[in-house]
Structures are given as C-alpha cells and as structure tokens.
Amino acid sequence: MIKKIFITLLVFICFTSKTFSNEFIGVIGIAVGEIYNQKNEKLINESKIFYGDTIIVKSKSNTQILFLDETVMTLGEDTEVTIDDFIYDPDTNDGNFVTNIKSGIVKTISGKISEKNPDNLEIKMPNGSLGVRGTEFLVSSNSEKESTVLLLGPGPNNTLGMVPGSIQVTDGLNTTDIINPGFQAMIKTVVSSAELSNPIVLNEMSSSMSHSAINSSNIINNSKNLTSNLINSSNIKNDIILTAEKFDLNVDEGASEILSGLSTGSGSKEILVAMNELSENILIEGEEDNYVRTLDQNTILYDSGWFDLTKVTTGSNGLSYSSDENVFEDGGTQQGRGKVYVNFDKKEISADVFTRVTLKGASTVSHEYTTPTVTITTIPVVASVVMALGSDGGTYLDRLQDDGSGACPNDSCPSLVNSADTLQNNVSSTQDIMDKYNHDTSNSDAAKEVFQYGKFTTVGADGVGIGTIIFEGAHDATAAPAGEDDYVQSIERLEGSKSLVGTALD
Prior knowledge:
Elements: E1 24-32, E2 35-37, E3 48-50, E4 54-57, E5 62-67, E6 72-75, E7 79-89, E8 94-109, H1 112-116, E9 121-125, E10 128-133, E11 136-141, E12 147-153, E13 166-170, E14 175-178, E15 183-187, E16 195-196, H2 199-208, H3 217-222, H4 233-247, E17 250-251, H5 253-260, H6 268-277, E18 299-303, E19 307-308, E20 310-312, E21 335-343, E22 348-358, E23 364-370, E24 374-375, E25 378-379, E26 381-389, E27 395-397, H7 430-436, E28 450-458, E29 464-473, H8 484-489, E30 492-504
Parallel strand pairs: 8-9, 17-25
Antiparallel strand pairs: 1-3, 1-5, 2-4, 4-7, 5-6, 6-8, 7-8, 8-11, 9-10, 10-13, 11-12, 12-15, 13-14, 15-16, 18-21, 18-30, 19-21, 20-30, 21-22, 22-23, 22-24, 26-27, 26-28, 28-29, 29-30
C-alpha cells in the first residue's frame, strides 16, 4: 500500500494571507515531455506556477508540481488542470486551494492547507468535486465525463502516527465517503458507493504517469537544484523538539542552531558550509553495530537522486584547492547519490552510496557501497562516511579512518587537506596516503584512487534531509613526504549538496 510521502517544500518567498493573480504559488519539480501553460509557454524543471494558471500535459508526458503549502500534484499524460484559487499564509497555514481537473489523471498529496482545514482544499471535476482530509489520492476524468477517485492513504492502522485520510466525493446532489485506502468511487451521472479498486483501473492510471513515476521517486532523481534549498528555518527547532520527544532522543543544540540559521534563499555553497560545521553525533560501538538494517513501515528512505559535483578552488571548509585539471575530466560526469535509511523507532541509520566519476582522459566509472548500520542517539541526526573510490570501480576503506567502522576521528575526514602545507592526520603513513590518491601518470606508485566523503543530516521523521558528497584527488610527480606542501597544493576538489526527500517504505 502506498503511504504518504513526507516532504517539506521550501517557501521560496514570504506569502501574505492574500494571493494575487500575478503571484507565485508553486514550481515544476519535474517535467517530462511537452508541458505548457495557458499562454502556450513551455514549462520545464523549476518553471514557476502562478495563481490562475492552467497546466496542459501532452501525450507521453508528465509533470509534478510542488505548491507552497507542500501539496504535491503529479499530472499524467493528456491532462489539463487549472488553479482556480490559492491563498496561503505560511505562518498560520491558513488558506484556500481550489483546482479544476478538466481532463486526465492527477495524483495529489495534500499539504498544509488541507491539514489545517480540510474544507479548504477542493478538487473540481467535469461532473463533480471532492473534499480532502490529509491524504494521498488519484483522480481520473475522461472525455466522456466519467470520473474515478481512488484513495491511496494513509490508512487507519498506519504505524507512523499519521491521521487517517479520507475523501468526500459529490456529484452535486449525492455524496460518497471513501475512508479505506485502495477503495474508489466513480461519477457518471451520479456518484457510486465506495468499493475496492479494480487493479486494471489502477494500472491504467499508473501507466499514464509511467514517464515519470507514480510514487514520486523521479522528482528526487530529476529535480536537480529545485530541492537544494529545502530548508524551512522557522519550523526546524520545533521539529527537532517534537522528534526528540517522540523517539526519546537527545537534542543537538549546536546542530539545531546551525540548521535554523539557513535561510530560505540559501544556496548550495551555504548549505555545504553549514554541513561542514555540523559534528557527527551517531553512536559507533564497533562491529556489533554493523547489523542488518531494519526495513519496515517505520523506516524512512531519504533518496537524493543523482546530483552534480562541481569543482571548487575554495572549499566549503574554507581551504584552498588546485585549479588544475589533471585529476578530474573537465566537462565529465561527476555525480553522487545517497539513499539513507533511517528508522527512528529502532534508532538506526545506514546508507547506500553511489558515485559516477570521470578521471582525466578516462571514461566514467561507477561505484556503489553500503555503509555499516549504526545507532541514532541525537536529533538532528548527523552521520558521515569516507571511502576510497578505485579507477576500476572498486571501493576501499580510506586510511584516514581510525578503524574499520567508517568513523572519522574528531570529524577530521571532510578533506585530505589539513592546512595549506599539510595533509590530514591519519592512521596510515603520509607516503601511503600520497600514493593512494595520486593521479600523476609519471609516478608508478600512483594508485589513482579518489577520496570520497559523504555527510547527511535530517531534522525529523516528517522532514527533509540534506546530503553532501565530496571528491578529491592529487597529481604530484614526486609525491614524497619531504614535499608534502607541493602535494597538498596539487589536490583538486569537487563538492555538491542536495536535499533528500523522506519517503515511508511500503
């Protein structure tokens, strides 16, 4: 059964309690194929949606819209939807939201307006309308003025503490309540009673959205920079307190202050700087913590999707790096992806990490590995991992670590560089570290591995996570401890950040 997606949408601008026709109310999270508005303007990823807009989705196309109250709408092919009304006050969550589905298939995850007052979210169809109470649902309307409404969730027995969803469907005279996930009602001339959905109907609906994804995963994979600023600082401290109380966790006051200091306009660089300031607070007690992660209904998956890393000469840590292009191919694919599994109930965290690296004069190489599963003690959760990426696709423990647990002693692992003249302190010899990450083709000892550091934080079980990934490599012909300063100055660095949208596992 599909469960409600926990998602926090960045409030790009500060709304008053009144919205006018020229004001921004949402943004395209993903656009696949041909998507237009009523002005015949093509809509792409990150295109803004305004009050009164009509969104038109052509054949073999899909789009996903993120509204400022955190409502998410996925529009299937051959769909036309008009935003009849949108008023939203983010300080109180008061507002009014009316959409008109003229034709097609629309999946909706209701947001803050409906949560505050269910009567204030209305979905119109050619032959009826529906009211929503905090839930996820599908609506299909065809040219024959036949509409189908399907409730997806959450159900009354969910284990995540969510209020059960419901839908009230009306043809104008008659009303049907849908309270059980997986049940549907149809409107032809009159609304039918609620009944268990026909799998054929669901498959037809799903296929209309197959170009993106019915479960919203493609918004994670394709929205690039859209969600890189997914912080709502006004709610962070409250979310931290509530999550700590609910799951009996400690509160990291320092991390709370750092995260709440991010503004709604924070860019990738600011996020990277903030992340660099966070200290890891997970509990690593040795191999007994490296157990199989729990994947149940209480597990939240934070998936960043693939995101690009860019070259920097001044890192988010304030250190300087080489501007040469002797390690990473200029214009090549340099990407990272993190799938982080957090179970607040079991107090555990682990991750699958994926990378794509293009070295100078070489083809792109992919890597993947799974971190140990370790214990959560504190909120916000701050965890990191360091790994060596081989040019052959292999992954190896990095020798900056103090043991085999993946730990970075005293958070000393965000870079190979300690200062302008010295490498980071490590448990291996300086020569070993130099050889391991050296890419100079004239040095026969150069292993041509890439230093990779990843870091993740999340505020709470119903919020957003932030992930960062860093690549580094050097190119020094000598690569001798006596010339450590030369080696340090040859190190190139790529870095990137991405917000990770939390999804309850089925």
